[in-house]
Every structure is written in structure tokens, then in C-alpha cells.
Amino acid sequence: MKQDKKIIFTIKDLSKSFGSKDVLKDVSFDIYEGEILCVIGRSGIGKSVLIKHLNGLLEPNKGKVIYNGKNISDLKHSDIYSLRKKVAMLFQSGALFDSMNVEENLALPLLEHTSMKKADITREISEKLSLVGMEGIEKLHTSELSGGMKKRVALARAIMQSPEVLLYDEPTTGLDPVISDIINDLILDMNSKYNLTSIVITHDMRSVRKIADRVIMLHEGRIIFDGNIPEIEAADDLVIQQFIS
Ligand SMILES: Nc1ncnc2c1ncn2[C@@H]1O[C@H](COP(=O)(O)OP(=O)(O)O)[C@@H](O)[C@H]1O
Ligand SMILES: [Mg+2]
């Protein structure tokens, strides 16, 4: 099935170190348009480092990341902004500003990177909030939001500029199972309704089983698994088995 699909990202021989610590070693894989790709692996293994290469937050030491035919390392500084508009990221922390209300948080990317008028921004915000099931909370302060609400507002902010690709860094970590399911449903919904490609870092196998079209597992700097849910369930590698059970 995946062979018929268009490749949107090619990651080729990507290596990344910090000081003497080799985090990624010659990692290669493709990402297909429209898929939900889950990236799993134990804490500290390099999942966040990996996906930060997809929108130019990190630069490879070696190898390349090609998005729609272009090597991200070759992009000019100004093109990085358009890249991040297309490849948006939902950070693990949510990264909302506590000193601002919901509306101000959501307006930020549009004020910084577009010349949209105030009225259009207001309408856009209300649309995006309703997409994540949070209509009417514009005037609430970030500090008044629950964990699940914060994630949804962060998701609304990530989709403000109608991206093609959404990078989710641990979207359900720290949430209870009921709220996690709501977020998982939203990820599925966004993906199908807007024809997004979604890359989701998680160590929660419940979420993986619910949303993943495909899973890659990182271990000691390399990809030790790349396949679908039935395939990972059947994998006989001990490291994989331990992780998924
Ligand atoms: N900017 C950085 N500078 C130095 N070390 C980093 C940096 N970012 C990540 N690391 C290290 O890289 C390793 C992988 O981190 P990370 O990708 O965040 O793991 P995880 O799989 O939990 O997301 C960790 O050892 C982390 O300390
Ligand atoms: Mg991480």
C-alpha cells in the first residue's frame, strides 16, 4: 500500500551528536503523504531530536532531510519560516505563554508571520478553536486551562497557518486515559479531514495502537523497527517486545 503513496520526507543517513554523545547514527527512512507515523522508543533515546530535524530546529551533523524535494539544510533563513508554516510542531510542553490569554497566544504566529487584519485573525482563531472543540474560550488565561485544554489550544495554535505536516511531541503524556483518547481522536480527525501528514512521538502504546498507520522504533541511535501495528505485535526482537508490552 505505502509504495503507491507520495513521499513527502526523505531522511537519509542522518547523524546527530551533542559533544561526544551520538544520539542518531545514520538514520534513514521515508515519510509518506497522509500517513500517521508514530515514533516510539524509550525516554532520552532521541525521538525529539529526530523530529526537530523535520522543521529545521536542528541541523544534521551528517546526512540530509529532504522535504518535498528540497534539502532543509540548503534553505535560506527566510525559507525556514515558510517551512515551519508547512511543517508545524506541537511541543511536549504545549509552549503557550502564561502571561497571555488564549486569543493572544493563538494570534502570535499570525501577527509575526502574516499581514492579516485583526478581524480576520479573530475569525481564524475562533474557527481553529472550534476545530479542537474549544470554541468560545478566547478570553481565558492559559493558567485557567486544564492539561487537556492546554494541549487542545496548543494544537489550535499549531494549525493556525494550515500546515501540511504536524509534528506532535508526546501529545498525550501526562494526560489521563479519557483525555488522551480525546487527543488521539483529534489527531485522527485532523489527519483525515485536512489530509495532513502526522508524525507523533509517544511512548504510550495505547495511543500507538489507536492512531498509527506505521510505527518506527528508535534504539541506540538507530531504527530497529519500521512497520505497521500487526507487524510490531508480531516482532520477536526482545527490545521491541519489552517496549510494547
Ligand atoms: N540541545 C541539546 N544539547 C545537548 N544534548 C541534547 C540536546 N537535545 C537533546 N539532547 C540529548 O539527546 C538525547 C536524546 O534526547 P531526546 O531526543 O530529547 O530524547 P527523547 O527520545 O526522550 O525525546 C538525550 O540524551 C538528550 O539529553
Ligand atoms: Mg522527547
- Name the poorly predicted regions: none
The second-level CATH architecture is 3-Layer(aba) Sandwich
Structural class: alpha/beta
Cα shape: globular
Computed Rg:
18 Å
Describe the sheet with the most strands: 6 strands, mixed
| Percent helix range | 25-40%
Q: Could you say what the CATH topology is called?
A: Rossmann fold
The DSSP helix count reads 9
Structure description:
This protein has helices at 47-52, 77-86, 102-113, 118-131, 147-158, 177-193, 205-211, 229-234, 238-244, and strands spanning 7-18, 21-32, 36-40, 62-67, 70-71, 87-90, 165-169, 197-201, 214-219, 222-227. The chain has a 6-stranded mixed beta sheet with strand order 6-7-8-3-9-10. Strands 2-1-4-5 form a 4-stranded antiparallel beta sheet, with no helix packed on it. The two termini are 27 Å apart. It is globular. The protein has a single domain (2-98, 165-244), classed as 3-Layer(aba) Sandwich (Rossmann fold), CATH 3.40.50.300. A hairpin with a 2-residue loop joins β1 and β2 (21-32). It is an alpha/beta fold. 33% of the residues are buried. Helix content is 37%, strand content 26%. The mean pLDDT is 92. The protein has 9 helices and 10 strands. The structure holds adenosine-5'-diphosphate and magnesium ion. Adenosine-5'-diphosphate (ADP) binds next to α1.
